[in-house]
Design a protein that fits this description.
By secondary structure, the protein is an alpha/beta fold. It contains eight helices and five strands. The protein is about 50% helix and about 10% strand. A five-stranded parallel sheet has the order 4-3-2-1-5, sandwiched between helices. About 10% of the residues have low confidence.
Length: about 250
């Protein structure tokens, strides 16, 4: 065989080998991506199953850590639009520690100043007081204070006895009276609200402490709010809503 033919044959053999190698590589590449895709699909499947399983188990886990959510409530917030005074103040005592002192002097001073300086009284002047979890005892009736030992649990002493209070020491005289008490301020048109989210937290706290069913505790707390207290969806929501309606914001 001549040198030319040998070169031609070698080239053909090399080309065949290259083609075969390329085919093998192509097949291996296809196999590689097939198994990668299968693995990804499997992981996605397992992730989906895990997520679905987790979602199914979530309510049970949550129920062990917190009291059951209350039934849906139709929230009536129309009372906000009835507060049309020229001067309006939202006072946030939501999570202030009321075991050392009362924060109710602040709204009293606000109303007194407008009365003395501008000779204005409600409804020309409006005040709302927002309460969440820590300051919850302000919104609770005497019966709730006694039944759930709020004075002891919140470390609030009765100024008359020096012992843990078994009555709401912030309420004041039944006739309203004057000064920095709940009833005196309500008599002057002040509105107190209670955050529902915080009330659920208080419900869980007292249910664990007393061993009572959370649903029973919540029913007691809702029924035992002071007359006139507005139960609202969330403290933070209300802070925004009142400012949208022209209230200025103060946190003592």
């Amino acid at each position: 065989m001549s040198a030319g033919w040998r070169s031609f044959a070698r080239a053909q053999a090399d080309a065949a080998t290259t083609t075969a190698s390329d085919a093998v590589r192509t097949n291996r590449t296809r196999e590689f991506y097939y198994y990668v895709r299968m693995a990804c699909d499997r992981r996605a499947f397992l992730t989906t199953v895990t997520a679905v399983t987790g979602l199914t188990a979530l309510p049970a886990a949550q129920s062990a850590d917190r009291p059951p959510s209350p039934p849906p409530t139709e929230w009536d917030l129309s009372w906000l639009d009835q507060l049309k005074g020229k001067h309006k103040q939202a006072i946030d005592v939501g999570n202030m520690d009321v075991s050392e002192d009362t924060t109710l002097r602040v709204p009293m001073n606000y109303l007194d100043a407008f009365r003395d300086v501008y000779h204005l009284e409600p409804p020309e002047v409006n005040v709302v007081i927002g309460i969440a979890r820590v300051a919850f005892p302000i919104n609770a009736s005497d019966a709730i204070w006694e039944k759930y030992q709020l004075g002891e649990r919140w470390n609030i002493k009765d100024p008359q006895s020096g012992k843990p209070a078994t009555r709401n020491i912030f309420l004041g005289q039944p006739t309203g009276g004057s000064g920095s008490t709940v009833r005196a301020l309500q008599r002057r048109g002040v509105v107190f609200w209670q955050c529902n989210v915080a009330l659920q937290a208080v419900t869980g706290q007292l249910a664990r402490a007393t061993g009572k069913p959370a649903a029973d505790v919540r029913a007691d707390l809702v029924a035992g709010l002071n007359p006139g207290v507005r139960l609202v969806p969330a403290h933070t929501m209300m802070i925004g809503l009142v400012q949208e309606r022209g209230f200025t914001y103060e946190k003592p």
